[in-house]
Write a structure and sequence with these properties.
single chain, alpha/beta, 4-stranded mixed beta sheet, 8 strands
């Protein structure tokens, strides 16, 4: 009987070691609205940082964004293609929001992920992997 607690501890430690790679595989994917500035065309340039801490490079990553005006009313839907997103890298992407001043945008809502496809893989649901952040005055939300 003296060896059972020790066996239980060793079994528990072995299970933790086996589970650890699965937990470490996926550090998530952070999408950050880093800054917004007026575009020469009169619209708004939105600078996004994509931090890929997952165990996959993504060859497909498309987002459908709802842009809300100063009153919180949806002004438009934008589809943006952020691919490719390389493994273990931070990528900068610039997207123009046409015909809408930055000061007239109160919030950007991630409405849908129309594509999330790992390199050499099938489409997958990436919502659970995503963390959204904003350093701009405009909120970025799910």
């Amino acid at each position: 009987m003296r060896h059972r607690p020790r066996r239980f501890f060793l079994l528990a430690a072995a299970l933790c070691l086996l589970a650890a790679p699965g937990l470490a595989q996926d550090g998530g994917l952070t999408v950050e609205l880093n800054k917004m500035e007026p575009a020469e065309s009169g619209g708004c340039n939105a600078f996004f940082l994509f931090r890929n801490a997952t165990d996959n490079s993504f060859e497909g990553f498309e987002m459908s964004l709802a842009v809300l005006d100063g009153a919180g009313v949806i002004d438009r839907l934008l589809s943006i293609d952020a691919a490719p997103l390389p493994l273990a890298r931070t990528t900068l992407k610039l997207f123009e929001i046409p015909e809408l001043a930055c000061t007239d945008i109160s919030e950007i809502l991630l409405h849908d992920l129309t594509s999330c496809r790992p390199q050499n893989g099938a489409e997958m649901d990436c919502f659970p992997l995503l963390t959204l952040r904003s350093k701009a005055d405009t909120a970025l939300v799910k």
